[in-house]
Design a protein that fits this description.
The protein has nine helices and no strands. It is mostly helical.
Length: 266
């Protein structure tokens, strides 16, 4: 196996493991620590926003300019918008499937449908995240620089951090619905199993079709920005009245840490 593909596999197995850790909280708690989860979601949002530019968009523009083909700004913009559109369409598909299931099934199946759609939506949400990690590691195939490695690692760390509350977001509601702790944990961690698969596919895509690397990096950036802005930031701001700056400081700190690492190593 190509070394960068193997690294992508290791990284996404790591992000999946963090999902499993989040799902494992169902064994100890009936509900998660809201303040801690808000801080983690905020920190992950800041990391992902910063990484989207310094670790994905900026290298995408540089590589597109080096090819002397399609203008770099067109490649980066098209890739970014396609990544965001992919996440939006995925979310729409899950929402439509959920509405259809609730409309066509009776009350006796409503609970099962709700559980299925919860697991499905988070599983689908994890696919572009795995692709983003795979693309970031696949970009290292032509030479590993300290900033390139750190960029790929921080993307994996940021995604891993936000996977922790996602695992809990699946397992804890399942437990409340009457499932056993074991089954709740198994279903919760299973929502992240697509990330290693998507990560390997993303890395292989870059290794064997290098010409699409600038577009793929921009695509991953668009997907990550949409996830951060549409899902993570609103989620971590839910208890803003009780904890007005908890999540906000997490976002600022995550962005600052990622920016510091990229600029310092760059």
């Amino acid at each position: 196996m190509n070394s960068v593909v193997f690294l992508a596999l290791l990284a996404t197995v790591g992000t999946w493991s963090v999902t499993a850790l989040g799902a494992a909280t169902v064994v100890f708690f009936k509900s998660p620590n809201t303040r801690l989860l808000n801080l983690m979601l905020g920190f992950a949002s800041g990391v992902m926003i910063a990484a989207s530019f310094w670790s994905l968009l900026e290298p995408a523009i540089e590589r597109a300019e080096a090819r002397h083909g399609t203008p770099a700004y067109l490649v980066a913009t098209a890739g970014f918008l396609c990544g965001a559109a992919f996440m939006w369409l995925s979310d729409k598909a899950v929402s439509c499937a959920r509405c259809r299931a609730f409309c066509t099934q009776g009350k006796e199946n409503e609970r099962l449908n709700r559980i299925i759609m919860l697991v499905l939506s988070i599983t689908l949400h994890n696919i572009p995240e795995g692709l983003a990690v795979g693309v970031a590691f696949g970009a290292l195939q032509n030479g590993s620089t300290p900033e390139g490695i750190m960029g790929a690692v921080t993307i994996a760390v940021g995604i891993g951090l936000q996977n922790f509350p996602e695992g809990a977001a699946v397992s804890i509601p399942l437990r409340r619905e009457g499932y056993s702790r074991k089954k709740s944990f198994l279903l919760g961690q299973a929502s992240g199993i697509v990330e290693p698969v998507a990560g390997v596919l993303g890395a292989l895509m870059i290794v064997y079709v290098e010409a699409i690397l600038p577009f793929a990096l921009s695509f991953a950036a668009g997907a990550m920005i949409l996830v951060a802005v549409h899902e993570l930031i609103p989620e971590c701001q839910q208890n803003q009245k009780d904890q007005p700056y908890s999540a906000t400081m997490g976002i600022v700190t995550g962005f600052a840490v990622m920016m510091l690492l990229d600029v310092m190593l760059g």
